[in-house]
Specification:
It contains 2 helices and 7 strands, in the order βββββαββα. The protein has a single domain, classed as SH3 type barrels, CATH 2.30.30.100. Helix 1 packs across helix 2. A hairpin with a 2-residue loop joins strand 1 and strand 2. The chain is mostly beta strands and 117 residues long. The chain is globular and about 50 Å long. It has a 5-stranded antiparallel sheet, with helices on one face. It has a two-stranded antiparallel sheet with strand order 1-2.
Length: 117
């Protein structure tokens, strides 16, 4: 929960910070047309193709109504999510959406236990 500060009857909340970068790369959620959804650092993008580092496939998520909420606030049900292990690098084609995450969203995604079948 965000902390609030009230001064002269006006409520202030901290600005949400973006996720920490890795060698200048942003941590994002990347949705593709047919390969699913991934989270990781966007190394490069060329048209509909993107290279993602430290990538995690977001196979199923709970505790967030949408990818946008997952990117901003993370999941409230990490044990019900199905996120397999991190891959060092993946090249995705047919990228249709890239969503920047906040530090909170990133930490939540990274903190989800590795799902294994």
């Amino acid at each position: 929960m965000e902390k609030e500060l009230v001064i002269n009857g006006v409520t202030y909340v901290p600005k949400q910070q973006g996720a920490p970068e890795l060698d200048g790369m942003k941590y994002c959620i990347v949705r593709t047309y047919s390969a699913g959804v991934f989270a990781g650092y966007v190394e490069s993008r060329d048209g509909k193709e993107a290279v993602i580092r430290k990538a995690r496939r977001l196979w199923r998520w709970e505790g967030a109504a949408s990818l946008s909420q997952l990117a901003m606030s993370g999941t409230s049900k990490p044990n019900e999510c199905k996120f397999p292990e991190v891959m060092d690098r993946v090249t995705l084609t047919e990228v249709i959406e890239i969503i920047d995450t906040t530090a909170v969203g990133m930490e939540s995604i990274i903190g989800v236990p590795v799902w294994k079948e």
